[in-house]
Amino acid sequence: MVVRVSLKDVAAHAGVSIKTVSNVVNNYQHVAPAMRERVQRSIDALGYRPNLAARHLRKGRTGMIALALPELGNPYFAELAAAVIDAAAEHDYIVLLDHTGGRREQEILVSQGFRARVIDGLVLSPIELETDDLRDRAENVPLVLLGEREYDLPYDHIAIDNVAAARAAVRHLIRMGRREVAFIGDRRGRSEPAQLRVRGWREELTSAGLSADDGLVAATDGWGHADGAAAMARILETGRRPDAVFAYNDPVAIGAMRVLHERGLRVPEDIAVVGFDDVVEGRFGAVTLTSVSPDKGAIGRLAVQSVLARLGGEAPEPRRIRADFRLIERESTLGRPAGDGPGDA
Amino acid sequence: MVVRVSLKDVAAHAGVSIKTVSNVVNNYQHVAPAMRERVQRSIDALGYRPNLAARHLRKGRTGMIALALPELGNPYFAELAAAVIDAAAEHDYIVLLDHTGGRREQEILVSQGFRARVIDGLVLSPIELETDDLRDRAENVPLVLLGEREYDLPYDHIAIDNVAAARAAVRHLIRMGRREVAFIGDRRGRSEPAQLRVRGWREELTSAGLSADDGLVAATDGWGHADGAAAMARILETGRRPDAVFAYNDPVAIGAMRVLHERGLRVPEDIAVVGFDDVVEGRFGAVTLTSVSPDKGAIGRLAVQSVLARLGGEAPEPRRIRADFRLIERESTLGRPAGDGPGDA
DNA sequence: CCCGGATTTTACAACGTTATACAGGCGCTT
DNA sequence: AAGCGCCTGTATAACGTTGTAAAATCCGGG
Fold this sequence. Notes:
The structure is a homodimer.
Chain A: H1 7-14, H2 18-25, H3 33-46, H4 52-59, E1 64-69, H5 75-89, E2 94-99, H6 104-111, E3 121-124, H7 131-135, E4 143-146, E5 156-160, H8 162-175, E6 181-186, H9 192-207, E7 217-219, H10 225-237, E8 244-247, H11 250-262, E9 272-276, E10 290-294, H12 296-309, E11 320-323, E12 325-328
Parallel strand pairs in A: 1-2, 1-3, 3-4, 4-5, 5-11, 6-7, 6-8, 8-9, 9-10
Antiparallel strand pairs in A: 10-12
Helix pairs in contact in A: 1-2, 1-3, 2-3, 5-12, 8-9, 10-11
The first copy, chain A, binds a DNA duplex (30 and 30 nucleotides) through helix 2 and helix 4.
């Protein structure tokens, strides 16, 4: 058992006051070089390490922010977490990771501060959380939301333009000659991001004069491989035979591709597939996956910036911040280019 | 901005002493029912929430343990994290997740308590960390290691039997008629788990009278898809043509399969593949992946139990704890059963 | 009606830190 | 040489909580 060394012990050892030691520890500027060195020697000799609980109590700051994600197992969120952690480190902040499972109840708990409670700020990536759940948030730690939101509440939210991204994905499919594009991964209104992607899908199809009827939309319970597989199977069993699939995210897309493979349907020859999030897994399947790639680094940086800006009780105007995205084209959408015009694939 | 309510405010509101409120909050037994109710009413009225920093300072306990993993993006670790979080919640403990990237320097930092510093205990899953790095650990928070270790230090370590698991995987390949089994994912002595798996691989091959020469072992820098792909490519370029591959983990195995696919080699017909960790991704590729499946739930439970048992300055005898594993057989090792006998593929 | 013992409540100190305000000491200006 | 201001270092008081020990209250029995 290592004995705990406090400022008092160091002060006694160096023969100075506690505050002087504190000044050295905190790099206070008005400390004579000789004194600084003497105290530092004592600090090293005793192996002093500041007690963060006391510091926290005194300053009211913990030096930690929480990042609450729906699913750690989804590599997209893992990469996003890494981005946030790095961005926070730049400001000497530690990130406390939490996961909500995308369940509304858990998201409410987190937003009210009942999960991670020793934090200065919170970055939350909600799935099912609704506007009213945040309306009367009785909690004073700053909150920043990841993911596009429709509502009007005094919180920043940072996201790519989901509608535009979905339209870009569908546009690519159309350009590749596809006429019947299914959407997999709707949540029947229970998820804002899903609604936005469905909307983008519908808008792009409609404006191209193609059909976007409900028979082409498959809802899922979750957004994992298995959900995508089940939904794809359901679509095929209705007898419907789309020539392209736009999936809510990459795991769903990969699950769907597995089912297509099992049924003897070839990707992309018979059915093209586009995912979302550009997860590493999508680059190593037997058929590599075309996907919408959000700029995770930017999202992480903006989130941290945004939450730290609200620390001192400051309340900058809430903003809707748009991060970039790109469509990464891979094997799953190859071929049959140039629908009604010339193509370049 | 929500005002911060302290015990003092509640005490004033209820017209009692601070300590009485504290007693109510902590469910101290000698509080008259009428008093308890009166105080509770004030607590509710003011929306009091205990200040954890002060509690921490006073009690010396934070109610948090850290779980440091090499890679959040690897779904194996994500699932493991979920298991630990659940197990900790049973004891009213919060888990602070950290990631080391599997880099020795980061692992040392974590083990010395320089990363997450407001914790009661630490569960660390090391990759490159060496015995000497822990020898003189000047840190008094209890540490538990995940992953089998050879050394003799006063810490519990919890793991499946890596050698036995590797032997089981290779044995399965041999039983399926394979004679030349490569290993992908060695780290040239820089990782204990890798060494153990290589040893199991070698032992099983040798005891079956098969060759286990160094030409069959491919080292990698990391353990992601790309590493597996690169290593597989390297093996093929030497002209060597194994009929099976045992990979350090599933992502490596999947990366390798992608390269085999690109070169026109069929899995499992030409080359069988076994992975490690039984990650969900392995169940949804074009060829599903046979894998060693550790009992993550048990590992999580044991880790939490183990770290909490060391809290009160108690130091139970350090133990090497073995968790279970199973080999899950899937498509990537089908066919050609029964070694030198007839097959059924 | 008073006393002893058990129950209930309270005052106070302490956990380790930093902010504030202040006391010396030095050098520079006038 | 006196005065002013800057640089250094210090004593003290918080931050919000809980453990300790003592004080107040209650109860039944003599």
